[in-house]
Amino acid sequence: MFRITALIALLLASQAAFSQVDYSKAHPLISPYQGSSVWKFESSDFTNAEFPLAEVPGDLAKGKYLAVSGVSYSYQYDTPEGTSMIVLTENYKQALEDAGMELLFSCSGPDCGPGMNALFSETKKTGDIWHQYNGNDPVWLYRLTRDSGNAYVFLYFETGLYSPRVYQTVVEEKAMETGKVKVDPDYLAKQITNQGRVILKGLYFDTDSATLKPTSNETLSSVAGYLKAHADMSFYVVGHTDDTGSEQHNLDLSTARAESVANALIKDFGIAKDRLKPRGAGPWVPQARTGTSQTKEINRRVELVLSLPKS
Question: Which pTM was predicted?
Fold first, then answer.
């Protein structure tokens, strides 16, 4: 309890300074350096973050990242004029460690890799506030392990003209709320009749895995009901991914997910194997322009595509 209290307090540096931060927006796990001003604040009910675990290469897809999903809070703080970078970082370090947080990654300058600026400025993988990496200053990733779900604190300390600036992202692990989208046979029939294909909403997989989650069963049951009512039709089951990672990995993953859906329909719902042909399209047929967690989620999907009879 003492450790958590130490982090919540985070009375960094001078006790005399009066904080300009709206503490109703400050995250309860880590308040800012005392006397700081909050310039920007963004939050999201659910995000898929990717934090670096090693120096970031120029080709971002080849980097080593920690994927974290949950509620996110992003902050940009300006510290009081004259604040020392050494004092600032030492106070943060002490508070984070006193709270029982574990350092997962740290770098500074060239050790951060040639791709760190692109990771910050061209993606929103590390937070929702746009910024750049100046090539010199510290970057940290900490984890607080707890039964209710781990929390991650990602920090970038940027040298400013008069004082350092702090970019801070906190992500608290949380499973996405599912079961809000249902696929019924009438919807399937309409889409296939009009378009020859339908996106199977309500299918859920473990991250970067082809393992179907139990919450997918309702959609699978609806699809099976449609297939049984249209026993003369055959289909391709086509998996799609976003563009994170290598092309070959995404092609393999999309194929494996299509196979998982087809196998579930065959083994669990009695659909004839020769009616379903699983295929993978990788990232090649996006529904939306990629770059944000929202558009990536749209592009990750499985479709049922009508297999037309050969003439």
Answer: 0.56
